[in-house]
């Protein structure tokens, strides 16, 4: 792809400048697709530019000023992406929020950034904003996309997005010159977007990212993977997450590729198959869920079909990754792999929606080696990256031919990485964030005067390969009572490699042994229960079933055997565990919206269960407050079994 005419920062100092380039260079190519009422609608780059211009003029008519914050709330929809670029076009700053955030969480973000304008997808999101308007009195206008259910609302401050666009088109003569002046004034170091962290240890922080951060990171990563205007991506991850902003706006506007928005979360897998993206990102949990569904379907398949599947998949695991990486493979093995592709791998990739994937990424958590190798054995170029909001995503990345499940690759283009004497990872790059909004203390403690950022993660570079390996969050790495290393995330990730385990929380810092809370995966364990004629009426009942405990105990003991082989972490074997009576939930404050465990909240909320794990109890009765989908609070009680687990004597123990 020829981008010579667009490489100068002066010419392309902002996302709106890239939009203008795309409207001319890729005028008739698709920029956005959205499925609505079962039908795909499409907009070219020229059409998208016209929609965004009309919305930007409408914003000016509503009184949006330079430096204003415009909150965007909803699922992935072209009009909401247009709202972000329209806000940038008038010199304002878009602030996307998590659509599943409760009103109280939104109140903090809206109040903290001081948003005067909110673009909300539908009645549900409008209701949340109206509910907290006393806590965010600075909100002047709410613009909604979907009018259903809003007809009888007070429209003194409510505006339909299409009406704002209509007003913008009518106001071309009044505000046209003003819009052009504001776009021309946008510089490389002006703010592009503000994204809030997930808030694992406290209040979310507003991460200010500049046009330089977004464009340089997008340019470098697109060139690394040879992304062009011919790519198709599926935009389904939260718009408030930095990864979606980079993939669906940064890289999309730099390369000119097409962003496809599914109809809903329920139809996402169907829409994925219909689009067949060439460039795809998903957190490990998505890949794990898809593999779980494959395993469940094959368990229900006929004997011949299952034997055929198992035989060819064994061959794929043997030679698939080598073929994908271009390493030497014998002629017979290649022929058998081609036959497998015709009978098994190709149809399976089509069912998963991965037939056209050229580059796939996963990040956020460690992915199980078996799961990772399964996808690569099918010929899917799945890779891992390591990143943060503060880095504008990219810190390390895996080059083709150097892809492994146990590392996160080498420093991304333009990124410097170093490890301090305590093992904490630091980086410096053009993507390093500007600041935490209204939080100079946190900015100073995270980023030093030379631009080095503390990740909070502990890791090391492998000798010989130069690949980075992540151990755990630096603040969570501790010592057992006997002085041995305690790294809970390392153990939790090993436990979550099993499809039956949705979440795990490991304890042991300063203690003589490690223990764990386990959340079962209701889908995987539920299907297992059906195949084994185990009746259950609820998550709580299934989680407490003796046979489920037996199965989870086997998984924990397998992990212990694996951990025992690691001399450095052998002290982290699990001695006792219990299966929680409820799933850890963001609505209950136990996890962030990006599904990261709030470890300190768990320790406080379930202190009685932790005490029982360590005092020798074999059961405990507990009562827990929960939040229902409609926001109501309730309490559930349960008597939980506590199991002792076999541990493996390591060389150090024997000594």
Explain how this protein is built.
By secondary structure, the protein is α/β, with parallel strands linked by helices. Among the domains are: about 5-210, Rossmann fold (3-Layer(aba) Sandwich), CATH 3.40.50.12780; about 480-655, ANL, C-terminal domain (GMP Synthetase, Chain A, domain 3, 2-Layer Sandwich). Helices cover about 40% and strands about 20% of the residues. It is built from 22 helices and 28 strands. Strand 3, helix 3 and strand 4 (about 95) form a beta-alpha-beta unit. Helix 2 crosses helix 6 (about 160-170) and helix 12 packs across helix 13. The radius of gyration is 26 Å and the shape is globular.
Task: Offer a few descriptive terms.
22 helices; disordered N terminus; GMP Synthetase, Chain A, domain 3; 40% helix; alpha/beta; five-stranded mixed sheet; Rossmann fold; 655 residues; five-stranded parallel sheet; single chain
